[in-house]
Design goal:
Strand order of the largest sheet: 5-4-6-7
Shape: globular
CATH topology of the largest domain: Rossmann fold
CATH architecture of the largest domain: 3-Layer(aba) Sandwich
Number of helices: 11
Largest sheet: 4 strands, parallel
Structural class: alpha/beta
Distance between the termini: 16 Å
Length: 248
């Protein structure tokens, strides 16, 4: 696809397929358009056979994933893409290395989400509005729900710290529930228990979380399934907004 003086969004998708189709729909529904021609041009590569990212992180084979991502990115560049979105949080473990091998910008969903959350919680710490201004305030606490690979690599933890946020993550027991919802639920087409979701979210809120980041695109599917409130920050919605901003 070539468009003279036009911007084209390239998407490395398929991780997983349901999340990719949701991202495509979110881009369409979030675009201010009154006709077909008002929407952004996109090239979507649905690479469903990409090796599992969490498994690759856990067993030390993530470089194989990086090579495949680099080949996909080059495919999009050759097709005319002017920037790239990857609706998969765990792949951001190799995003910096991937960007070094690609000539067009890749949207950093993790960093963009942490920056967005920072803007949403900016201001006095709840309960500390009248604290002495010369006293160093406590940090805003943000909960993170993501794959075990994303948690292990501390992708969101590090990104949150860059914006002076204090990240908290589920206990090992609750993290098992997160993986169950992602893999046995969305990826496998099985049922997703709202009680499991509330159990994890409740633990993070008990830790003081003012917002909870949904740092897995399968959790974006769950967000839609349960019509979750704005307390939950959907990383894929942040990616959607950033992609539209860059490509309009």
């Amino acid at each position: 696809m070539k468009e003279e003086n036009g911007k084209i969004l390239g998407v490395i998708g398929g991780m997983g397929p349901l999340a990719t189709q949701l991202f495509y729909r979110m881009v369409i529904e979030s675009t201010d358009a009154g006709r077909d021609q008002d929407h952004i041009n996109m090239i979507i590569l649905n690479h469903a056979t990409m090796p599992d990212r969490t498994t690759a992180i856990m067993d030390g084979t993530i470089d194989k994933v990086l090579d495949k991502l680099a080949a996909d990115a080059q495919y999009l560049v050759d097709g005319g893409a002017t920037c790239i979105a990857i609706p998969c949080n765990t792949t951001h473990a190799v995003l910096d290395k991937l960007q070094e091998r690609v000539s067009i910008p890749i949207i950093n969903m993790v960093k963009s989400t942490a920056e967005y959350v920072s803007s949403q919680v900016a201001g006095p710490i709840p309960g500390n509005e009248h604290a002495n201004s010369f006293v160093q305030p406590e940090k805003h606490i943000v909960g993170i729900m993501a794959t075990s690979g994303t948690i292990k690599m501390e992708l969101y933890q590090n990104a949150c710290r860059q914006f002076d946020l204090e990240p908290v993550v589920p206990s090992p027991e609750k993290q098992e529930l997160v993986m169950k919802m992602i893999y046995d639920g969305v990826k496998n087409g099985g049922p997703v228990s709202f009680e499991d979701f509330e159990s994890v979210a409740g633990e993070l809120q008990d830790m003081g979380a003012e917002k909870i980041i949904l740092g897995c695109t399968e959790l974006s599917v769950i967000r839609e399934l349960f019509s979750l409130r704005d307390f939950y920050v959907d990383a894929m919605q942040v990616l959607t907004d950033r992609a539209i901003e860059l490509c309009r």
